[in-house]
Amino acid sequence: MEQKNIETLTLKEIKNRLEGQVAATDMPMMEPGFAMLYGGKRQFGKAAVPHCPYRLPGIRIGLFIKGEAQITLNLIPRHLSGNTLTFFCDGAILQIDGISNDSDVRGVLVEPWLMNELFPQGVPAMFNGQVKDALMSVDDSTFAKIQHLYEALALVLRDKPVSRSAALSIISALCCVYSEYYVRVSAHPAEAPSRQRMLFDAFIALVNEHAKSEHNLAFYADKLCLSQRYLSRVVWQTSGVYAKEWIDRAVITEAKVMLRHGQMAVAAISDALNFPNPSFFNKYFKRQTGQTPLAFRNG
């Protein structure tokens, strides 16, 4: 298996891990270019190791129906509860920190190349690459509408042979509903973000994009046209976490994904993460986690 497939959590890998643990009717349904998870009761708790980061290939939309979950999404700790829409961009990093036994979820994965087939006149705003992730609580009416679309898609996929045109039409409708709701919520937020919050969000977006190669605060301050001192103060006042710690969290998350889900040698991971040498990487990883890279990989 190729490296990028090993270090990511694909729906195929989820399906393999769930075999023998859930009913056949609850398994992910897979078609060329897309897949659906319908019977999602406690499935993520069974398919993913808690407190372990996973890279998620493909564009993913979901409906968290009920239950509670604590996750870390692209570095940021988040809480999930019922009636919540989820969106993860291609390549998002997700870590499940806790999930209740009554959790239930629906979800669709779409390969990025299929979006152009679904929307030949241009993809909806939420899916144009600018939005990295979103968790949105919805009212009962919107929740019911979206749940009916998932139910319709499940019926189409379970009726063999699958009508691809019908399935793609429903997926297109789901994407439009998600995007329209996102645009509406973004245009009328409950509370306008402060300048500090906007700078913090921009900083985190840069860290998610560049932390594999850029470990120094000076790089991010320069990108934002700020002094290191001012950026450090803004990040601390907004999050209660130092800016350098956010960078270190991103680097360690990338390292953990490569170590736990890949086959690269530690020296190769050190090079991929732009460390001067493996010895420096080993000391850095142990200082941040209390374990050596090999101990974490074998743990």
Automatic annotation (TrEMBL):
Coiled coil: none annotated. Keywords: DNA-binding, Transcription, Transcription regulation. It holds the Pfam family HTH_18. Gene3D superfamilies: Homeodomain-like. Residues 201-299 form the HTH araC/xylS-type domain. GO terms for molecular function: DNA-binding transcription factor activity; sequence-specific DNA binding. PROSITE patterns: HTH_ARAC_FAMILY_1, HTH_ARAC_FAMILY_2. This is AraC-like DNA-binding protein. It comes from Hoylesella shahii DSM 15611 = JCM 12083.
